[in-house]
Amino acid sequence: MTASTKGPGRPVDPARRERILEAALACMAEEQNFNMQQVAARAGVAKGTLYRHFANADALLLAVLERHHSQLAGQVDASAQNLPQVREHLLSLGLQLVDFYSSEAGIRLLRAVYAYGASHPQHGEMIFRDGPMAFVRRAAEHLQQAAELGAITLDDPLLRAEQLVGMWKGSLMSGLLMNGCHAPTIAQREERVVSATDLLLNALACQKT
Length: 209
Fold this sequence. Notes:
It comes from Halopseudomonas yangmingensis. Keywords: DNA-binding. With 209 residues, this protein is mainly alpha-helical. Helices cover 73% and strands 0% of the residues. The chain has helices spanning 14-31, 36-43, 47-53, 57-73, 83-101, 104-119, 121-130, 132-148, 157-169, 172-177, 186-206.
């Protein structure tokens, strides 16, 4: 699903679009509410201007998620020629994830979208599909590359990717969301991602022997 963001009329102003996305996130985080009128007021734009950028509230919400995941997960590099290269891509993906979860901006976004999804069940499925599961699918694509190279045995790419992402996050995300722990250091984040990635890849490689 792709957000429909541009309607007829004047060209979309990228800076104004970013301001609208930030306003939508603020409404979700602080008010646990989300409608076009509130977002327009928060962004300091007319409601008609908001609709020139986003067709409806669903498109706006999806745009918030898409911006987050495009920045975080990026695109799968199709140039991997061996398992070490796939491993490096997975490490990069995992570090981006853990770094984001450990940042104030990341925690703010997670709290906002989780609270919004819980209080607006009609949007919960979309948030899950285009939020957490989008990242799992990206990790699954990397694992699929390793399988196509003959480096690992992969019975269920999505399941193995979900297990890997779960190991990357561990209990850290819950602790940070609840203010129950401090953000890990760079070295601690690297150790978390490297150990989890190697554990899964080694296990899947052993299945080939």
